Amino acid sequence: MKGLLTRLSAMLRSGETSSYELTKKYIAEIEKSNPSLNAYVHLTFERALKDAETADKMLKNGVGGALTGIPYALKDNICTDGLLTTCCSRILCDFKPYYNAAVVEKLNSVGAVLLGKTNMDEFAMGSTSETSCYGAPLNPRNLSYVTGGSSGGSAAAVAANIAPYALGSDTGGSIRQPAAFCGVVGFKPTYGAVSRYGLIAYGSSLDQIGPITHTVSDAALVYDAIRGADVRDMTSAATDAAPTVLDPEVKGIKIALADEFFEGLDGEMKALIEGVVKKYEAYGAEVSSVSIPSLKTALPVYYIIACAEASSNLGRYDGIRYGFRAADYSDVDDMVVRTRTQGFGKEVQKRIMLGTYVLSSGYFDAYYKKACLLREKLKGEMDKVFEKFDLLIAPTAPVTAFKRGYSGGNAIETYHSDVCTVPVNIAGLPAISIPCGKTKTGLPVGMQIIGDRFADSAVLSAAYFCEAESVCGEEIYEGDVRL
Amino acid sequence: MKYELVSGFETHVELATATKIFCGCTTAFGGSPNTHCCPVCTGQPGALPVLNRRVVEFGIRAGLALNCKINTVTHLDRKNYCYPDLPKAYQISQYDKPLCEHGWVELESGKRIGITRIHIEEDAGKLVHERGVTYIDYNRGGVPLIEIVSEPDISSPEEAREYVEKLQLIMRYIGVSDCKMQEGSMRCDVNISLRVHGSDELGTRTEIKNMNSLSFIERAMEYEYSRQAEILDAGKKVEQCTMRFDEHTGETYVMRTKEDAQDYRYFPEPDILTVVIPESKVKAISDSLPELPLAKLRRYITELGVNEHNARLMYRYAKVCRFFEEAIAEGASAKHCSNLITGAVFSALATEEDKEQFSVSLSSKEFAKLVRLIDDGKINFTLAQMTLSRMLADGGNVDDYLTAADLAGVDEGELERLCAEAVANNPRAVADFKAGKEKAISALYGYIKRATQGKADIKKADEIIKKLIN
Question: Is the model's pLDDT at A478 over the cut of 70?
Fold first, then answer.
């Protein structure tokens, strides 16, 4: 198997290197390139070295798993006990939770080593990571371009190989889109496959944690380490007990291409994706074209539902119990208003207002309720597709990475860059973005493979086909072992 | 009175589950501030609610006891509002699909007060004001509540009191809440409007929030009735508003008007899955419901022949009823059991709380044994009462206090001798009795009781005395 994590694990198990040495190498690389990349916003080196020593003991005793002793990066909206977790928002600038997210607990228990928390759009609201209160991370493929978002720091850290892997969160494409923009692999599991306990909520019915990695096999390893039912998250569900088996055989699998995903797509990007689809056909997959009319409503449905939930989820940031509090105020109400006005950035305020509006009496039926009905309709159409087909293939985004600073003045166009990813969250499906080539300008293009609910291993296997058969040329970049 | 009072109640009842509605924290009352808390009930970022199964079961139990239909497919909703005691800035409650609907509570008159709905929700924390500083205690945050919404069927303060008392009793009987108004485990919002007698139209209502005492409820309703009547008499309109009752002045005052009514922006809680309750579960809960208070009261009086006074004293306390029913199941007579319970036993239980808890060092079996001795004429009621008081005080058994001699009673010859003595020594009482003063004879009973330390069978003595006198 082609995978950085597999190789690192083998080296750690054989004693070729230690977790401590490996962690030190990554720390050195981060110190070198992070000041310019801004991928990490909080570094946890001291703790990392301690954890590495613990991991080395585990390795020596032959316990742990595939990720034991391997460092990783974590998006800053995932809670870490005693470590800053800010969602890259001023309002949580000093927030240190006293509990770990479920995924962090799982990774801790196998001796994974946390290097630091990664940059992101404030509260995961954005498609460029430029709404971060710490400034945007840069795209390691081309520093003049954004990383995408909201998990831009995680994608940049992996792309620059200053993290062997990272966790991100995906509400409307926040793992897949930055993975596509940075030319790495990003996997959003089925809604419920990974516990959301400790993930600071944006759109609760859409949010899902997943890995950003160099390769598909790496993604499967990380996915296996973090998935499964959690009693603390009622929306989580049991997944297969056995590890994911990656099967590159595509003979006989039925792939659908939905016309709506390709409408108006740039010719160069379209050609790259069609090239990969042809390979699937060449290896025996059956490819057909379908229509999913509700895809056209997905973007407004997403922005209504996500903002409605966000307006409620973010109500708790009032400066009373934790986080930032405005300095001067006349009474409690004034304190809350000033705290929120000063603590939240513009994009977050915009979405809170939008969400408040669509839930208000008199507008609820016209917006929120209608969006919920359309959500059910889209789910129904997706169900129909998966009655006949195994997978959908689509672009990850209709565009490549934006130039830095571009989206500030082009909000609608930026929102539109989520058009291919949001339907997946609305329907709770698993989807992966893998690199499928570069445009003439040298920017990576991502291709999305979407599966039915809880068909995560089918999605991973189909993506693994590309990796195993090198159908995407050199685009799946394995990442150097840092020694 | 020109106007008819129209009132509906929204009653919050804290459920007696061991843990909170969405986390494992204790629901115990009190505790140092913020010690019964965790990331979930203080709304920490990233924490998620997990619905406590028992809360749903208790809600169903309450619903069935109030004759409701149970919605077996239901969900929770978020009620969004901003207040420091609400750490998530939304309360998880139920909006368009409550757990229970369409029930009623029966009053003693036979009138039914309709129950519109019962839903489950979480309680908020508490603000504590001390020397100009406000503190927040989240211990109560996340304690499970049911909100029982009645139809506007209540037409007097007296009916209101009975309705609340009946609710209280029923909730205690079925074990879902202790309903202690003084501790806040039961609180009422009272909606009041007036209309001219005979009219079908409802007037504009006002809502008095957070009432936590029965007498305050009655006083507030009386005050609000006259306030609204005055407005209507003057030809003006009552303004819809939310009010508070000032217990010192006995007046209601406006808290907020309709214009400042909050928009709660209810929407389905995405963190909690749809609740699907199997019919078999509802049936099992229904089967496990005990006999309810009013039915019990009526049965005690009509079937068991307990006098109404005693029946009313006993039926308020579920544990007392259980003790009583166990004793009669052991073959003791309902009449003597109820007399002794409301007599000697209640004297040993000074407060309401004591009677509620009913922790006495007396088994229903020993109690029944004692009562059977009266039933069989072995001892009289007075001796039984004295013995019972000692058993309650020392925790002993019947045999520890009653000797064979006590149980042997007073032999016939001795009793006849004593009766003759009583007649001879009480000429005045005898004369009065002969003159028609029936009660005068009790002086002679007293004489016999004293002489035999209560061992004599007074019924027999009565026969002998009357024979002697006549």
Answer: no
CATH number of A1-483: 3.90.1300.10
In whole angstroms, give the CA distance from residue B107 to residue B158: 11
B264 to chain A: nearest residue by CA?
A360
pLDDT score, position B468: 81
Q: What is the SS3 assignment for B242?
A: strand
Of A192-206, A451-465, B180-194, B388-402, least confident by mean pLDDT is B388-402
Alpha-carbon separation of residue B162 from B110, B111, B166, B190 (angstroms): 12, 11, 6, 14
Task: Compute CA distances A353 → A149, A310, B226, whole Å.
Answer: 21, 10, 44
CA dist B293 → A321, B159, B242, B310 (Å): 45, 17, 33, 14
Distance CA A100, CA A81 (A): 5
Residue among A103, A122, A233, A321 with most chain B CBs within 10 A, to mutate:
A321
- The mean pLDDT of B182-186, rounded to a whole number, is 90
CA-to-CA separations, A181 to A62, A145, A187, A206, in angstroms, rounded = 38, 9, 14, 21
Which residue of B87, B263, B273 is in closest CB contact with A360?
B263
User: Are B160 and B173 within 8 A, CB to CB?
Assistant: no
For chain A, domain boundaries: 1-483
CATH topology (fold) of B412-469: Arc Repressor Mutant, subunit A (1.10.10)
Residue A475 pLDDT > 50: no
Closest CA–CA distance from residue B142 to any residue of chain A (Å): 15
Q: Specify the pTM.
A: 0.91
- The number of helix segments (H) and strand segments (E) in chain A equals 16, 11
Which of A205, A316, A360 comes nearest B43 by C-beta?
Answer: A316
ipTM for the whole complex = 0.95
pLDDT in tens, B55-69: 999 999 999 999 999
Instruction: Please say whether the beta carbons of A76 and A200 come within 8 A.
Output: no
> Over B263-280, what HEC string results?
CCCCEECCCCCCEECCHH
HSE-CB of B18 using CA atoms within 13 angstroms = 1
Give the separation between CA A450 and CA A36, rounded to whole angstroms.
34
Q: Is residue A99 less than 8 Å (CB to CB) from chain B?
A: yes
Query: Known catalytic residues of A?
Result: 75, 150, 174
Number of H helices, E strands in chain B: 18, 16
Does A150 sit behind a cis peptide bond, omega within 30 degrees of 0 on the bond before it?
Answer: yes
Answer yes or no: are the C-beta atoms of B375 and B336 closer than 8 Å. Answer: yes
Distance of CA B451 to the CA centre of its chain: 44
Distance in angstroms (rounded) separating the CA atoms of residues A195 and B48 = 10
- For chain B, the structural domain boundaries read 3-285, 291-408, 412-469
